[in-house]
Structures are given as structure tokens and as C-alpha cells.
Specification:
393 residues; mainly alpha; 3-stranded antiparallel sheet; 18 helices; 3 strands; 3% strand; binds s-citryldethia Coenzyme A; Citrate_synthase_typ-I; transferase; Citrate_synth-like_sm_a-sub; acyltransferase; Citrate_synthase_bac-typ
Length: 393
């Protein structure tokens, strides 16, 4: 504490804003979107229903949902000139770097998004983002396979359209497996919002300068990419593969995690800033992993390794004392993999899920006219000193 400034690195004890969108109770492991329990929404709602709820505050009537879905379908195609930007990326470009670049580029394609003098078109930009993110997201995967990109098929629902664009090939009929589409629907709902996490706080901070929605969302995608945040879902699978290739000795890796300072090893998918009890999303995903893999007849050895790690950690003083439980990223990659999604696309899947939450929070920040974010600091640098000519340095 110096003068009037309270230092709170990582904002561990600072409320940055007021919000009516998502409620978390870290001690009880509770997550609600606009008052609805995540368990109910994951079981009973569609992803676009949840997107509408987060963004507009209420579950849509049938008529509102029909109109919302129709408006999104009308915007699923992407300006063909965006493909020229995309073609400039190397084949091994990480899909998250491609996604944040192309979303940022959308602000250049829609100048009405940053010209405050024009009538407000926020709802149109919201629809464009929800509609085009899945289309853009699949381009990287198709390029990595040497396959032609697919155009959206507007006779399909949101999740089925994404799967079609990911996996359809011009040489044969592709039919979406309803088990896969439903699993994707649940995963996207579980990722849809999470109050003031790192990427959402980034979207709010960028948007607080009155930067346009596309630029703010692009910043959120970049923040999500970090391995401590959404990038953890890719890290988890790579970690589980390493453990499997090293003989599957989970006790060895638990010990390495406990000596993180010496080993530099972190148990990705464990721990959370807010949840000091189970992450309710991890519970749902763990159960879904068993269901989906059984239904698809997939036997993934890393699922057993994940369960072994969880079991060992939950009975180990180091983790218990630090209240480290599996988080949303611990099991999600196992399902994505069973759905045929490649590892380097896992964080892209997180971004597609989190998009409505980012949009809802950006919209709320603008509507409540939050001031521009400009935190202070505690200065630890040099006191006043005089300039030294270079000949005397
Ligand atoms: C997401 O904020 C959100 O809501 C995020 C998210 C969302 O929906 O938006 O939920 C999504 O990002 C989930 C988190 C994904 N990240 C990971 O799985 C990476 C591994 N987890 C950690 O890096 C960590 O737990 C964080 C980043 C999630 C939280 O970090 P904190 O709150 O700053 O906690 P910390 O790093 O200070 O850890 C506290 C202690 C430390 O030990 P000590 O220094 O006190 O001895 O716990 C240890 C840490 O070393 N610790 C771990 C650990 N996580 C924390 N030890 C081993 N393995 C881990 N995973």
C-alpha cells in the first residue's frame, strides 16, 4: 500500500466491474448463466439458446430463437477476400493465431463497426461474429489436411454446420453423427461464459476504450490462447500423451507437480483462481467423456490416465491443501479428440464456445457505460537522476 494505491497483482481480490451475466461461487462450485444452473442448461438447452440468453438476458421464445437462428444462418458465409488473407498463412500456422488475425481483419471489412458516428449496428456485428467464427475456424484444419474448405450448409443447425465444414469432403456424402453434434452442443454451452476470467477481462478492457467489437474479441482470443488459460486444454492432452508414452506412471508426475519449482512441471487442467472446490463444468465433462466415448465406441487410453491422475491428486496433501481440482480443461480435450477434432484446434473450440460470453460482457460494459480501464501501479524504479552524455557513460 503506497498512498491511495492497493497493489493486487492478478486482481486476485479486486472486483473490476458489476455484472448481471454469470454467477460463480468458488467455494460451492456453482456456475449460473443469468440465474440458470449450468447443469440444467447443459442438459436442456441448445448452444444458440444459451448464446441468446447470455447476450440478451432472457431465454428466447420460440419466435425469438427462430429469428436469431435465421439471422445467424444468413451470415455464415465469409467475404471471399478474407480467404486471400487466410491463404497468406503458412500451412503450420497455429489456428488460434489465424483466428485472432481474421477476426481482427473483420473490423476492416465492416467499417461501420468502428465509426461511432454511424447508427448503432451492434446486433448485426454480434450476428456476424457468431455466424462467421465457426466458418473461419474450420479453414485452418482443412488447409492442414490439404483439403478444400467447405462452405456452410444452411440447412444444418449450428453444431452440425461446424462439423460439416470441418469433416465433409467433395468426393463423398458426409452425414453428421447426432451423438457428435450433441456432445459439441454441450461442450460449447459449458464454455460459453465465466464472469471476469482473463480473456473476458481483456475483451472488456479493450472495449472500454470504445474499440470496436471485432478488435475487442480478437484481443480476447489472444488472451485465451495462453497455456494458463484456454490453451490449457491443448496442454492437458499433450501432457497425458507424454505420461502415457512414459509408461503411464501417474505417481511420478504427481511428485513432479509437487516439486514444480525444481521440475518446472505443472499439472495442466488442475487448479482454478475461483473454484476452490470442483469446477462444475469438469464434473459434467468427465461424465460426458465416458458417455460419448462409449457411444462412439472409442477407447482412448489417456482417459484412464486422466482419471488416475485425478484420483491420485485428490488424495494428495499438496493438492488438497492448495484446493487444486480438475478444471474445465482437464477432460474436454479427450472428448474433442473422440469427435475427431485435432489437438491444435482445442483452444479454437474453447473460443467458439466463449464467444457469446465475450460478446455479452462487451455489450454490458458498453451499456453500463463503464469508464475506460486504466489501473495504477506501485512505482519501484529509479529516483530522479540527471542525463549523462554518452561520452561519459
Ligand atoms: C481456464 O478464470 C477462469 O475462469 C478461467 C477458465 C474460464 O472458463 O475462463 O475457467 C478457463 O483458464 C481454466 C484454467 C486452465 N489452466 C490450467 O489448467 C493451467 C494449470 N493451472 C494453473 O496454472 C493455475 O491453477 C491457474 C492459472 C488456473 C490459477 O492460478 P492462480 O490462481 O494464480 O494460482 P497459483 O498459480 O498461484 O497456484 C496456487 C498454488 C501454487 O503453489 P505455491 O506457490 O502456493 O506453493 O497452487 C500451485 C501453484 O504452484 N498450483 C499447481 C497447479 N496450479 C496451481 N500445482 C500443480 N499443478 C497445477 N495445475
Amino acid at each position: 500500500q503506497t498512498g491511495f494505491i492497493t497493489l493486487d497483482k492478478g486482481y486476485k481480490n479486486t472486483g473490476a466491474t458489476q455484472s448481471g451475466i454469470t454467477f460463480l461461487d468458488g467455494e460451492e462450485g456453482i456456475l449460473r448463466y443469468r440465474g440458470y444452473a449450468i447443469e440444467e442448461l447443459a442438459e436442456k438447452a441448445s448452444f444458440l439458446e444459451v448464446a441468446y440468453l447470455l447476450i440478451y438476458g432472457e431465454l428466447p421464445t420460440q419466435d425469438q430463437l427462430t429469428k436469431f437462428e435465421a439471422s445467424i444462418r444468413r451470415h455464415t458465409m465469409v467475404n471471399e477476400d478474407m480467404r486471400k488473407i487466410f491463404e497468406g498463412f503458412p500451412v503450420n500456422a497455429h489456428p488460434m493465431g489465424v483466428l485472432s488475425s481474421l477476426v481482427s481483419a473483420m473490423s476492416a471489412f465492416y467499417p461501420d463497426s468502428y465509426n461511432d458516428k454511424l447508427p448503432d449496428q451492434t446486433d448485426l456485428h454480434i450476428v456476424r461474429l457468431l455466424a462467421k467464427l465457426p466458418t473461419i475456424a474450420t479453414w485452418s484444419y482443412k488447409k492442414s489436411q490439404g483439403h478444400p474448405v467447405n462452405y456452410p450448409k444452411n440447412s444444418l443447425d449450428y453444431c452440425s454446420n461446424f462439423l460439416h465444414m470441418m469433416f465433409a469432403l467433395p468426393v463423398e456424402e458426409y452425414t453428421v453423427d447426432p451423438v457428435v453434434a450433441e456432445a459439441l452442443n454441450v461442450l460449447l454451452i459449458l464454455h460459453a461464459d465465466h464472469e471476469q476470467n482473463c480473456s473476458t477481462s481483456t475483451v472488456r478492457l479493450v472495449g472500454s476504450s470504445r474499440a470496436n467489437l471485432y478488435s475487442s474479441i480478437s484481443a480476447g482470443i489472444n488472451a485465451l490462447w495462453g497455456p494458463l488459460h484456454g490453451g490449457a486444454n491443448q496442454e492437458v492432452i499433450e501432457m497425458l500423451e507424454d505420461i502415457r508414452n512414459d509408461g503411464g506412471d501417474v505417481a511420478k508426475y504427481i511428485e513432479m507437480a509437487k516439486n514444480a519449482k525444481q521440475t518446472g512441471f505443472r499439472l495442466f487442467g488442475f487448479g482454478h483462481r475461483v473454484y476452490k472446490n470442483f469446477d462444475p463444468r469438469a464434473k459434467i465433462i468427465k461424465k460426458a467423456a465416458d458417455d460419448v466415448l462409449n457411444k462412439l465406441g472409442v477407447n482412448d487410453p489417456v482417459l484412464e490416465i486422466a482419471k488416475g491422475l485425478e484420483e491420485a491428486a485428490l488424495n494428495d496433501e499438496y493438492f488438497i491443501q492448495r484446493k487444486l481440482y480438475p478444471n474445465v480443461d482437464f477432460y474436454s480435450g479427450i472428448i474433442y479428440r473422440a469427435l475427431g477434432i485435432p489437438t491444435n484446434m482445442f483452444t479454437v473450440m474453447f473460443a467458439i464456445g466463449r464467444l457469446p460470453g465475450w460478446i455479452a460482457q462487451w455489450k454490458e460494459m458498453r451499456e453500463t457505460k463503464d469508464p475506460i480501464g486504466r489501473p495504477r501501479q506501485v512505482y519501484t524504479g529509479s529516483p530522479l537522476r540527471s542525463f549523462v552524455p554518452i561520452t561519459e557513460r
